[in-house]
Amino acid sequence: MRGGARQAVILAGGQGTRLRPLTLARAKPVVPILNRPLLAYQLALLRAHGVSDVVLACSYRVDDVRAALGDGQRLGVRLRYVVEDEPLGTGGGARRAADLTAGPLFVLNGDVLTDADLTAMRRLHEARGSRTTIFLQPVDDPRQFGLVETDANGRLRRFREKPTAEEEITTNTINAGIYLIDAPLLARIPPDRPSSIEREFFPALIAEGITSYGWCPRTYWRDLGDPVAYRAGNIDLLEGRANMPLSPPGERRGGSWIGAGGSVADGAQVVAPSVVGAGAVLGRDCRVGPGTVLGDGAQVGDGARVEGAVLWERVAVGAGAVLERCVVGADVKIGARARIGPEVVLESGAVVPDGATRSR
Ligand code: GTP
Hints:
Number of helices: 8
Bound molecules: guanosine-5'-triphosphate
CATH superfamily of the largest domain: Spore Coat Polysaccharide Biosynthesis Protein SpsA, Chain A
Number of strands: 32
Strand order of the largest sheet: 5-4-1-6-11-8-12
Radius of gyration: 21 Å
Strand content: 25-35%
């Protein structure tokens, strides 16, 4: 079947080492973004572009992924899971999952947050007679990414994974982690040993002259690989920098989203844009926001201040504590008058004593 591309595989089996310690407690593809699992945004985007049959290639902390997404019904998609006993890398993971599909399919890295127009990508793939089309993005510092060189017509010329030497940085266009691939090509990947789609599969296609194009639209895109990017991705969506087909849970009030069943004491303020999870309890004269996400069941003590921060579920912030531009895992207890500084990441379950300071 040509045309179409109504199916997708999402690579969701990595250990997310750069996002530790957050990924010690939860698989990266389901870390919360504005109180929804990261992959919920990808699934909503796929669905908005007519793709509702999705296979997740999983390996690490599979139960987290299943608990967060189930069979996909709530998100309007059909989800199937393929689980690797031993991680097979991006190549083997894609191959095994793609065995459940037929025809052209989207393959997505599970840590990409974007509102890219996948219909336009599909059109380009078809119009050029491309066999693999790769979503590209320009970045300021391409060193931590895979560089992709194209010719004047957008045809792929070369792939270079995470170059170190300056002379190897020949472009600022990088592999943005979404591919449209004609399924039979994936049968080239061995199903039973680890391999890399970026280091092996694509370079081999290019070397053999198989028609492959890059697609580089102006769009919102962020790779949520590390804690700084993770927090920034939350802020981007709060500030409306992306046109996502999914909004945060809760009721829209005064430029923020407020979950059900919480309470707000006298003098407490929620400064927009912020998201307050269901059942959150805000103490007297506390100030939450701007640019803040409180997970479900959060408790913010009297006079505490939380700004630019992302808090997972059931975090308790003591009276008079100050949190600025940090990320706090689930069930963390922060003592009274404690101070948590910019870009600090507190692991799920951590306890910060009264009056303590954490900074980077
Ligand atoms: P780091 O360890 O921080 O590099 O993160 P990662 O494990 O997520 O690796 P990377 O960012 O390179 O992975 C890109 C995408 O491929 C992510 O969505 C991963 O979940 C996924 N991925 C990485 N390795 C595997 C694997 O062995 N199997 C499967 N199924 N997916 C993988």
